[in-house]
Amino acid sequence: MAENSDIDQTSATLRENGFVVLPALLSDQQLAAVVQHADNLLDGVGWSDNDFDGRRTRRVYSLLGRLGAFESLLTHPQVRRLVTARLGEVHQFGMLFLSAVDPGQGAQALHFDAGVYPLPQDVEAETNVIWALDDFTAENGATMIAPGSHRWPAGRRPQPPELVPVVMSAGSAVVYSGRLWHAAGHNRSRATRRALICEHVLPWLRPADNHTLATGVEQLLSLTPELRRLAGVAPASKYLGVVGGQDPEQWLLRSARSR
Ligand SMILES: O=C(O)CCC(=O)C(=O)O
């Protein structure tokens, strides 16, 4: 009962402000495993080659085939309930990546993630999550957000005084509307600020990342059915997202059996 009312409260805050911080969701042990996995993935990765991604930022995509300790973040029950309450039972991952904002990285261009979809403003197409793998501070480039901007009319952009840093401890997550204006902040500190960023979108939209192709049949089969659905192996309806008229999950399992 108390759990339900917590979800109601966080859902209401998310609806109202366009974001909600879920503090300290991971145990020390879980966080250590996640950070270790992040460091393994980042090993040898260079800076991005464009201004938006950040020329002092390292990014790792195509994570579903090498989830390791990240699985507990992507399937965290509190986050899953919140996202499901907004998007419905059937939804899918949008963009999914690990990001390491290195010292000296300037602030990212302000944007809202659902801007890639030419949809009316009242369609809640996307609910996203940024997991802090390090403490997020105003100094080290915590995500800057404009509270309430998910409700702004088209064309209104945030002015500097409207932006606030999402200060949160490592192991916390901010869940936010795909219509919320935000950007990675300027990292003025001497340390890297790492995050796992996970978008979720309605099932009838094309996700930013092509997860099924990036992951491949073998790796998809090694995921749990829940993660497979989130990777896009789920029809959006009886007639949308099928394989030759079949449910893609059934198709995948049959193709595994016939090998
Ligand atoms: O790293 C962050 O704080 C946000 C990054 C972001 O919004 C993006 O790259 O689209």
UniProtKB/TrEMBL annotation:
SUPFAM superfamilies: Clavaminate synthase-like (SSF51197). It holds the Pfam family PhyH. InterPro entries: Phytyl_CoA_dOase-like. GO terms for molecular function: 2-oxoglutarate-dependent dioxygenase activity; iron ion binding. Coiled coil: none annotated. Keywords: Dioxygenase, Oxidoreductase. PANTHER family: ECTOINE DIOXYGENASE, PHYTANOYL-COA DIOXYGENASE DOMAIN CONTAINING 1. This is Ectoine hydroxylase-related dioxygenase (Phytanoyl-CoA dioxygenase family). It comes from Plantactinospora soyae. The lineage of its organism: Bacteria, Bacillati, Actinomycetota, Actinomycetes, Micromonosporales.
